[in-house]
Give the backbone structure.
Amino acid sequence: MTGRALVVLSGGQDSTTCLYWAIDRFGVDKVSSLTFDYGQRHRIELACAKEVAAFAGVANEVLPIDTFAALGGDALTDDIEVQEQPTAETGLPNTFVPGRNLIFLTFAAAYAYRHGITDLVTGVAETDYSGYPDCRETTISSLQKTLCLGMEVELRIHTPLMRRSKQATVELAQALGALPAMAMTHTCYNGQRPPCGSCPACVLRAKGFAAAGIEDPLTSRP
Ligand code: ZN
């Protein structure tokens, strides 16, 4: 594999696993990472992304997008309590930020275009999640097609976690040597590190590590 890869890095468990997947596949010198400051309430995510990237030995750049926060109405950018139960209006939890992955990948593609990068890597997955429609394989492959047409480039969007359960994602992280970096990641919907352990994101993460029979380096860190 000779191309260069750009990883959309949120500072969480999944994108960190993807970063190590990209390093394994493309080589550390061919990988860089991009983090979006989309007005997320938990600013710790940005620091985690920086820390993970530095630890892995890849560059990290932060791009600002303040539109989601201006739109409001979701629990990640607005001052609303996280409700994992689907709301009656949308059938989705209020952590859904409409269009987020589409916008992220479109900006990532524009960044890649400017830097001569042809491969994007994102941690979206269909399994174990809350049914976010922009994480589906059909959505991503459709977007890839649109980006290739709209920018007249051969762009590939890699989704190494698409069909993996949380357990399988943890096992992949272990196989890729990504576990030490997991101590620097952030998952908690309440913005806590060490994590709160009781929010839906913490529970899902803990379940994955427990099923894999691996101790989470984040919760066991001193
Ligand atoms: Zn939590």
